[in-house]
């Protein structure tokens, strides 16, 4: 097996206690690489390296334009290595090679975008109401950013943090998921090749329950950027609050894909399939609830089931595969448990509902594309994040009922609307409590558009102009130009 090392302070190192763990291929169910299993002391040295790099002239004295040029150089290397990194991600987390190549080939755009934004960060001169005083603001980096990322789109979700954080002038300690660390370590080598000063980007690998809290609570960390489940996000938020650290949290979702009676049926069917069966449902924006107007409910369900039956399941490294494996063994067990819960609650199984046994699946961790109909809005299958290829279809009678059902969860990450009415589209986009609303499309993202959640789906925004603000702090500067100091006992 390939043996990886961590990146700390510009050096490739083992864990201080030499512990490792295996990473498994979800399609074959076998281990293929060894990853360092970091402990608290490894976190300490990574944070120390990041803090030292933040203050070193090789990084802190760089002009914003020079910092942008360095990020562009990294983006060029990423473009060259995109397909190689996509192959590693598919082996490590089981996502479709077609999707991973698309992600990796598109990913450099985040770095080009924020590289261009690096020297566009400007303060303000304020026409202050105090005579004899000049007031202006500065936008400054926060310091050391801890980026904690999940296993479902490892490099993309890391990029949403690293690109704006680096453009703003911060340094990074990145802890990838223990289930998808190999691609992160390969990614880290490109920062080194691009010429980033040692310690600007550090990568520590290991288990969240062993090093996660230590990283979040570390006094040398100035900001937390986390993507993952809402329960873990809650813990991260609570720990960060002890030292008043700013956080960006992109958490879970139970997104509604709403199909109105005037929708183009075939397009809506494709959109619902895209929302839940693409990436095997292992995405925070999964449209895991399909809300369908009762007048078209039977026809829509028939068309959806017929289309979903044609999905090609199997080897994710094949270009023609459409549904790949579940990334982790614990997640496989969780999905199958939720299917049992849905059956027990009285939902009607229309498709799938068990572990896939197709010969194309080999020894991998697969769940059949699963559809439940006649789901009640308060059933657990309609309220809790499954994070797998399991769709709950809920009928509705009116626009008002659709809004009530769609907003009736603790989450608010995304929503889809399928309609030919511009009035309805605009009304729904206003009334849905979600950070992203797609109209007649689904799962579209861009480096230019902000992404984040309402309610328990998170805090802050990633991508777009909003993102760089998450990694800056504003300073107000006052300069007396009057030449005299007024009464020192009275506030000026």
TrEMBL record:
The Aldehyde dehydrogenase domain, residue ranges: 12-477
Coiled coil feature spans: none
Taxonomy, superkingdom: Bacteria
Assigned keywords, A-Z: Oxidoreductase
Annotated family: Belongs to the aldehyde dehydrogenase family.
UniProt xrefs under PANTHER family: ALDEHYDE DEHYDROGENASE-RELATED
Protein's UniProt name: Aldehyde dehydrogenase
Lineage: Bacteria, Pseudomonadati, Pseudomonadota, Alphaproteobacteria, Hyphomicrobiales
